[in-house]
Amino acid sequence: MFERFTKDARAVVQDAVGHAEAAGARTVGAEHLLLALLDREGSRASFALAALGAGGQGESVRRALDEARRRAGLSRAEADALAGLGIDVTEIVSRVEEAHGAGAMTGDPEGGARRSRRVGFGRDAKEVLTGSLRAALARRDRHIGDEHLLLALTTRPGVPAEVLADHGVTHESLSRVLGGEGEARAG
Questions:
Q1: 32, part of any domain
Q2: Each residue's pLDDT tens digit, 108-131
Q3: Which of 22, 62, 127, 132 would you label with 161, given CA atoms 20 to 30 Å apart?
């Protein structure tokens, strides 16, 4: 499948591996793909993000991803659902961090320490990569670009889609900007 990726899409995947390794994560997750997309300049995805007003909000997106990571990767919707059952995620995080230190619920038992082996792709990242292929096929594009990765992130439930939506980037708005609904195509 990677032979169909454009130079920009390949760079996003490589940069996502770098983000995961820098964070000491066991696997590359969907959030690492989003972080790598935020780093891009001059690509179709960066154009679309800018057109939707999210291009200059990279730090805000990063903070929202960090906060979700601190909640052990739970989305706000999941935390709200637990609250409806009487489970206060914020209180649990506070107590765990009190006992075990800040960031204890990030899922990295070594506290983000670098590992010597290369990280693999987690299920959520694999679903985004597969979703990017589906997005390209649906749009009748021959190659998978970074815009297809961004589209796939908006269709998969979870923290990245929630954070993007909070910043005005939904599948519908992105499709409009990229020309998926008869509008002028980006880039």
A1: yes
A2: 444 444 445 678 999 999 999 999
A3: 22
